[in-house]
Description:
mainly alpha, 81% helix
Amino acid sequence: MVERPRHALTQEDMAADRAVARWEAVRTFTNAPCLRPSLATGAAGGLAIFTLRYLTAAGPVAAATWGATVFGLLCGSNWMVCRRAMYAKLAEEAKLLHSQDPHALRNHAERVKARQALQ
Length: 119
């Protein structure tokens, strides 16, 4: 892993910092929440529709168009649903933690422990 400069004093330092930041973004973009399941769902659906359209004699271009369209729609919709659920869960946890209800906080701590035990 390349270390980023702490302070950009010269133009060269700034350019090096930008280059490292770009490389880190490219290298770690797959760590984004919900990305892998969304891409997997889109790929599976797009491949299925491509195969069905190709086997029903629609031609390779039409089949590829349908497959790519379904891939994009499934990826996008799955991404949005997953992110919305993730943010709703985070909002619920934040509301719970700010409620100062001891019973609710105890239940939350137990759920967190159970979730960590599963991982």
